[in-house]
Amino acid sequence: MSRILTVGAAQLGPIQRDESRVSAVARMIALMRQAKSHGCDLVVFPEAALTAFFPHWWMEDEDEIDSYFETAMPSNETAPLFEEAAKLGIGFHLGYAELAHEDGRKRRFNTAVLVDKSGKIIGKYRKIHLPGHPDHKPENAFQNLEKRYFETGNLGWPVWRAMDANIGMMICNDRRWPESYRSMGLQDVELIVLGYNTPKHNPPAPQHDRLGNFHNQLVMQAGAYQNATWVVGVAKAGLEAGVDQIGGTCIIAPTGEVVAQAVTEGDELIVALCDMDLGKSYKNSTFNFARHREPQAYGLIVERKGAVAP
Ligand code: CDT
């Protein structure tokens, strides 16, 4: 008996600075209904899916910064998404900026939740690999201020048993790092879901610009194959608040092959029937970790942060 999870990847086009959360949620509800009509069990939305991607501009006013964050999930504005999910009987993954009060202080994280078919949050992940810089760089066409607006995630990479599958999450820049996938691979992950906001232009290294879509697929295909897991990567795409972002939302099998891919830079749903047992032959052979990994030789990976030349 195969375990088929029908997964929808719900790419969003741009959300402009003046677009309300209510409007963004309405767009996601439309995609969720479309996903249900295609028989989806789970629909995956992008990173920070409720607003324009505000790390692209400099802000100093605390209240203005906080206005992009959620203090509750669900909130008044996002509750309709949870209610619709419960009504339709469909799970979802949603990325958002989280303002928490922990350890006696205000903390900000780039967060995603996994919600089951009853509309209940069953998993939370906080982004670990924050790209960019904490300081203002007015010489750049736009900012990449995740290191200013977010703290490094403090929840690790848990894997949850949900919908008869082992499901994990990462967020955007995490997908470029093999450690993210392996941390979940070591928990027998079968499906990794993630959202991203990836500009076409990379101010510190414009020579990379022509490779944005290639690198997007390269890292997710490698992560899928090397850990024998499905990977679903979902973009917020198109020209948003002056920043042009890649699309390329895709669903990748444990074979490393792309099985579905978006063709626009707007709101677009793609769907795949994902057999959660497809990775088993890899996990039993080439990537039988228990038999073939050699952790005693991997010490540097956790001991050392930056590269040191010989
Ligand atoms: N949101 C996010 O993490 N974006 C980064 C920007 C590019 S840094 C090369 C990303 O990894 O796509």
TrEMBL record:
Q: Known CDD domains for this protein? A: DCase (cd07569)
Read off the InterPro entries from this record.
Aliph_Amidase/BUP, C-N_Hydrolase, C-N_Hydrolase_sf
Keyword terms, alphabetized: Hydrolase
Which superkingdom does the taxonomy of this entry point to? Bacteria
- Signal sequence: where? none
MF annotations from Gene Ontology: hydrolase activity, acting on carbon-nitrogen (but not peptide) bonds, in linear amides
The transmembrane segments are none
Q: Which organism is it from?
A: Bosea caraganae
Q: Which residues form the CN hydrolase domain?
A: 5-278
Name of the protein in its database record: N-carbamoyl-D-amino-acid hydrolase
PROSITE patterns xrefs: CN_HYDROLASE (PS50263)
Keyword Hydrolase carried by entry: yes
Instruction: Note one Pfam family from the annotation.
Output: CN_hydrolase
